[in-house]
Design goal:
Helix content: 25-40%
Mean pLDDT: 93
Strand order of the largest sheet: 1-10-9-6-2-3
CATH architecture of the largest domain: 3-Layer(aba) Sandwich
Number of helices: 16
Strand content: 15-25%
CATH class of the largest domain: Alpha Beta
Largest sheet: 6 strands, mixed
Distance between the termini: 27 Å
Number of domains: 2
Structural class: alpha/beta
C-alpha cells in the first residue's frame, strides 16, 4: 500500500483563497493518480451539510472537474446523520449531477472487513470497555464491490468528542460504518472520558481506527486523504479581507496516502482550533446555524466544545433557531426522549443494567445513543439552556420537550433581543448593563477550555 504525502500546506497565519486550494488539490490529485497508474473509477467520501464550512464541498467540485467521467460516485459520509436533501446537495456540491450521489444507510448498507479482539480493545481503552470491534464500511467500498480503483476521502480535521480529532479513518469506519461500529466506538470514547479525548491526536478511539486501517485496508482500494483545517479569522484578518465578523479562513490543506498527512493536519488544528482561556466562563452563549443544526444530536456540539470552559454553577445558553427534534433518526429521537440527558453515572447504570426493552429501545442495545447522552450532560456542574422559537409551530422543539430531556428552556426571540449575534465578538463581550459573556457563533470549528482543565498532550 502506498504511503506518501503530496501536500502539507498551511499554518496558523495562512488564509488560502479558493484558487490556491484548487491549485494545490488539483496538482496533488494528478500526482496521486499517476503514482497509482490509475485509469479507473473514483468514489468520493465527503462530509454532509453539517460540515458546510469545511471547504470539502468546494474540493469535491474541483475533483469532479478533474476526474470527469472517472468520477464514479459521491457517497457523503453520513454516519448516523440524515440523508442530504436536494437543496443541501445544490448548496454544498453545486454543479454535480444528482445521479452521482449515493446515500449511506448506517443500519443496513455495511459490510465487515474484520474484527479487532476484545482483549486488544480493552487494553487500548485502558479497561474502560471490554468487547470486540467490527471494522465496517459501506458495502460498495471493498475491492470488487463497487469496482472503484481509488477512494477519495475529503474532510476537515478539528477537535472531536469521540476520536479526539475528526477525520481520516473515522471518515471510513464511522462515516460509512454500521450500527455496531458506531455504537462501540462512541461508547468507548464516552466510557474512557471525553475530557481526556477532546483535542488530542493520540486517543484510544483513534488507535482503534488506525488499527482497522493497518489490518484491513488491503481489502479496500487505495484511500487518498484530503484534509482541511479551518478556523475563524481574527478581527484584523476579517477587516483586511473585508469579510464579515466571524468569517472563516482555510488554514491548511494536507493530502496523501497513509497517516502522515493526518498527523500534520491534526497538529495545525490543535494550534488554531483549540482556544485556551485563563478563567472559567460564568455565562457562555453559543449560536447554532439553522442550516446545519436541526437536532440536539448535532447541536450538542455547543456542549461538547465548551464544557471544559464553563465554571461550576455557570450557564450555557444555546441559541437554536433551527432545532426540530432530538435525534437524527426516529429511533435515536425516541431514545433521547425516553432517557434524557442525565449524568454519566446514571446513563452507565442504564447501559449495564439487565433491563432490555422488547422493542429494542434500551441503551444497552444502542451504545452510540448512550454515549451521546453522556456527552450532552453538564454532569450537574452548570445549567444548559436551549432557546427555541415556539411560535414557529409544532415542527420545532417546545419548552416542554426541552425540559423533559433534562435541559432548561429559554425563549429564542427574547434571547436574541438581548444577545444580538451580529454585534457580538467571538470570545469575551461585556453588555451595556455590565453582564460579561463568552460568545461563539460556530461550535463546530473549535474547542474552548479553561487552562487548568486541558492537558496539552497530543
Amino acid at each position: 500500500m502506498i504511503d506518501k504525502t503530496y501536500a502539507a500546506c498551511g499554518g496558523a497565519a495562512f488564509d488560502f483563497s479558493d484558487e490556491e486550494l484548487d491549485d494545490i488539490f488539483s496538482a496533488a490529485l494528478s500526482n496521486a493518480l499517476a503514482d497509482l497508474n490509475n485509469a479507473g473509477s473514483v468514489i468520493i467520501l465527503p462530509p454532509d451539510i453539517t460540515r458546510l464550512h469545511s471547504k470539502a464541498g468546494f474540493l469535491v467540485c474541483t475533483a469532479n472537474r478533474e476526474l470527469g467521467s472517472r468520477l464514479g460516485a459521491v457517497l457523503p459520509a453520513l454516519g448516523t446523520h440524515t440523508a442530504m436533501t436536494s437543496a443541501e446537495l445544490d448548496k454544498m456540491f453545486a454543479g454535480i449531477e444528482k445521479n452521482k450521489f449515493l446515500v449511506h444507510d448506517w443500519r443496513n448498507d455495511v459490510t465487515e472487513l474484520g474484527r479487532l479482539e476484545a482483549d486488544w480493545i480493552e487494553k487500548t481503552c485502558e479497561g474502560a470497555v471490554h468487547y470486540d470491534f467490527p471494522v465496517q464500511v459501506n458495502k460498495i467500498l471493498p475491492k470488487g464491490s463497487g469496482n472503484f480503483s481509488m477512494i477519495l476521502s475529503i474532510g476537515q480535521v478539528s477537535p472531536h468528542e469521540v476520536a479526539g480529532m475528526a477525520n481520516h479513518g473515522k471518515n471510513l469506519f464511522v462515516g460509512t460504518g454500521g450500527k455496531e461500529a458506531i455504537d462501540k466506538s462512541h461508547f468507548a470514547g464516552a466510557a474512557y472520558g471525553m475530557e481526556k479525548i477532546m483535542g488530542r491526536i493520540d486517543t484510544p478511539v483513534r488507535r482503534i481506527f488506525n488499527e482497522g486501517l493497518r489490518r484491513f485496508s488491503r481489502e479496500l482500494p487505495p484511500v487518498l486523504w484530503v484534509l482541511t483545517v479551518v478556523s475563524a479569522r481574527t478581527e484584523a484578518e476579517a477587516a483586511e479581507k473585508k469579510s464579515v465578523r466571524g468569517s472563516l479562513a482555510a488554514r491548511g490543506l494536507f493530502i496523501g496516502f497513509g497517516g502522515e498527512c493526518f498527523e500534520k493536519a491534526a497538529k495545525l488544528a490543535q494550534e488554531v482550533n483549540i482556544n485556551i482561556i485563563d478563567e472559567p466562563v460564568q455565562k457562555a452563549v453559543v449560536y447554532l446555524d439553522p442550516d446545519e443544526y436541526r437536532t440536539t444530536w448535532l447541536g450538542n456540539k455547543a456542549i461538547y466544545r465548551t464544557r471544559m470552559a464553563i465554571a461550576d454553577n455557570g450557564e450555557l445558553m444555546i441559541l437554536a433557531p433551527g432545532l426540530r427534534r432530538f435525534g437524527e433518526d426516529l429511533n435515536l429521537d425516541a431514545l433521547i426522549r425516553k432517557y434524557g440527558y442525565r449524568s454519566g453515572k446514571e446513563i452507565l447504570e442504564k447501559v449495564f443494567s439487565a433491563d432490555k426493552a422488547a422493542d429494542g429501545n434500551a441503551l444497552c442495545e444502542n451504545l452510540s445513543a448512550a454515549a451521546h447522552l453522556i456527552h450532552g450532560s453538564s454532569e450537574g456542574r452548570f445549567t444548559i439552556r436551549y432557546c427555541t422559537d415556539t411560535s414557529k409551530g409544532k415542527q420545532f422543539l417546545t419548552k416542554k420537550e426541552i425540559e423533559s430531556a433534562g435541559f432548561k428552556w429559554g425563549d429564542l426571540n427574547e434571547a436574541l433581543s438581548r444577545y444580538n449575534i451580529s454585534k457580538l465578538n467571538s470570545g469575551w463581550n461585556t453588555l451595556p448593563d455590565g453582564e460579561r459573556i463568552f460568545f461563539t457563533a460556530n461550535p463546530g470549528i473549535g474547542l474552548w477550555a479553561e487552562k487548568k482543565k486541558f492537558c496539552p498532550a497530543v
